[in-house]
């Protein structure tokens, strides 16, 4: 079976392997009434067969639910939640969450039932694209926030570096900055509200969405969730300092350098990504705490960073303790993040390094070597992107394929039979 072309499978044999293919990590945690199985993902799909005889995670879960019919499960995925329609896995790129959804799509769409399993989509960050939904009361304020975050992510990935490099005058530089500000004017407006912190204003905007205001504002542990999310946003707000940086640049008397604009845009992208992640984490933690009202096993599959947030919150605030912790990275996390950042900026499929012989044609091995080399010297991507300009041919698809091939090594090897961990 090839992960990148996965289709729904019929399961006849419910025998479970001790090898689970697909996730890069698994943390098993417990409280007095619940077990949590938190699977981390790197949002990749292998385009070759896995290099062992383990169970791919969608099939592992199908076997698990059917073999242990007397155990209760909640399956929670980082897949899109809408109000008027169901998630379509074709909306986004291949990953293990999508493939788990494909295996259980009839259950997520309420066409079938598994008596011992509840199914949950956790990703509320695309509610604004649910065009059939008619906002009520102040829903539109939260939907505008989601739209703002997504708009800048699109702008950032749409040949941004090429456009910055084409700036030739101070007037063009300032106009570019004004347009960037305009695209995220809501965030500047929230930052200018002086009564509370930026994180507080983001949370207040979330709560203007009628469903959250009505159902979640008073649930158990909500104060801890609010403090956790607000703290994360405020930390990012202080660290990236995008608003003061913008003011200094737009008011600069000397020429504004391309690298300064690029650096600001990178900070904005990182900051928006953090706010975006915090919104997901907010809903993830709310749904998780609601599920705790049922005793049983919670299986949550999400990106590795979201899993880290989950584990941090439930161990410090909900009394969960670690039972087991599995995981190995396909590449080092910082190398992976650097690669992801590079691929997220589609500025060209031709690059070269000024530090290197311009006559050397880039290939996979050289680029991967450079990734490892530069990550040691630069904690952020701005200098790296500045060094690489448009010169020699390079095929980005091959680089992506290299890392997708590496995903065939992503697996968890259980030390014990899964039944020994179940609640």
User: Which percent band covers the strand fraction?
Assistant: 5-15%
The geometry reads as globular
Uncertain ranges: 343-364, 374-395
Output the radius of gyration. Answer: 23 Å
> What profile does the largest beta sheet have?
6 strands, mixed
Helix-strand category: alpha/beta
Strand order of the largest sheet: 6-5-7-3-2-8
Number of domains: 3
Number of helices: 17
Helix content: 40-55%
Strand element count:
11
Mean pLDDT, all residues = 82
> What oligomeric state best describes the polypeptide chains here?
single chain
What is the H-and-E element order?
A: EEEEHEHHEHHHHHHHHHEHEHEHHEHE
Overview of this structure, please?
A six-stranded mixed sheet has the order 6-5-7-3-2-8, sandwiched between helices. The chain has three domains: 3-123 and 295-330 and 412-420, no CATH class; 139-276; 333-405, no CATH class. Helix 12 packs across helix 13 (304-317). The chain has helices at 57-67, 96-103, 105-108, 139-157, 160-165, 170-183, 185-192, 198-207, 210-215, 222-240, 242-250, 258-291, 304-317, 333-344, 364-377, 382-387, 396-406; strands at residues 19-21, 25-30, 34-41, 55-56, 73-80, 117-123, 296-303, 321-327, 350-353, 388-393, 411-413. It has 423 residues and is an alpha/beta fold.
């Amino acid at each position: 079976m090839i992960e990148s072309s996965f289709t729904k499978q019929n399961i006849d044999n419910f025998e479970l392997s001790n090898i689970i293919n697909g996730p890069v990590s698994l943390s098993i945690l417990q409280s007095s009434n619940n077990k949590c199985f938190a699977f981390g993902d790197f949002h990749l799909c292998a385009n070759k067969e896995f290099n062992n005889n383990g169970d791919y995670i969608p099939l592992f879960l199908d076997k698990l639910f059917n073999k242990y019919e007397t155990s209760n499960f909640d399956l929670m995925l980082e897949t899109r939640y809408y109000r008027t329609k169901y998630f379509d896995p074709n909306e986004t790129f291949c990953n293990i969450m999508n493939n788990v959804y494909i295996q259980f799509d009839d259950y997520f769409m309420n066409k079938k039932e598994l008596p011992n399993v509840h199914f949950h989509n956790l990703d509320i960050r695309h509610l604004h694209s649910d065009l059939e939904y008619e906002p009520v009361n102040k829903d539109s304020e939260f939907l505008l926030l989601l739209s703002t975050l997504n708009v800048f992510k699109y702008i950032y990935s749409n040949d941004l570096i090429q456009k910055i490099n084409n700036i030739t005058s101070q007037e063009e530089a300032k106009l570019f900055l004004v347009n960037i500000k305009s695209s995220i004017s809501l965030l500047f407006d929230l930052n200018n509200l002086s009564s509370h912190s930026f994180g507080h204003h983001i949370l207040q905007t979330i709560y203007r969405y009628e469903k959250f205001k009505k159902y979640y504002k008073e649930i158990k542990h909500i104060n801890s969730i609010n403090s956790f999310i607000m703290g994360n946003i405020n930390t990012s707000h202080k660290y990236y300092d995008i608003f003061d940086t913008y003011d200094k640049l737009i008011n600069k008397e000397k020429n504004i350098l391309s690298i300064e604009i690029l650096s600001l845009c990178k900070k904005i992208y990182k900051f928006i990504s953090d706010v975006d992640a915090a919104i997901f984490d907010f809903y993830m933690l709310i749904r998780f705490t609601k599920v705790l009202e049922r005793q049983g096993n919670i299986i949550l599959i999400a990106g590795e960073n979201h899993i880290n947030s989950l584990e941090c919150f439930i161990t410090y605030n909900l009394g969960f303790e670690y039972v087991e912790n599995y995981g190995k990275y396909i590449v080092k996390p910082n190398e992976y993040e650097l690669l992801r950042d590079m691929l997220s900026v589609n500025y060209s499929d031709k690059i070269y390094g000024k530090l290197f012989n311009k006559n050397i044609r880039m290939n996979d091995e050289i680029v991967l070597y450079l990734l490892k080399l530069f990550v040691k010297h630069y904690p952020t991507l701005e200098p790296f992107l500045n060094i690489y300009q448009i010169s020699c041919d390079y095929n980005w698809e091959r680089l992506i394929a290299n890392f997708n091939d590496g995903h065939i090594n992503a697996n968890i090897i259980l030390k014990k039979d899964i039944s020994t961990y179940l609640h």
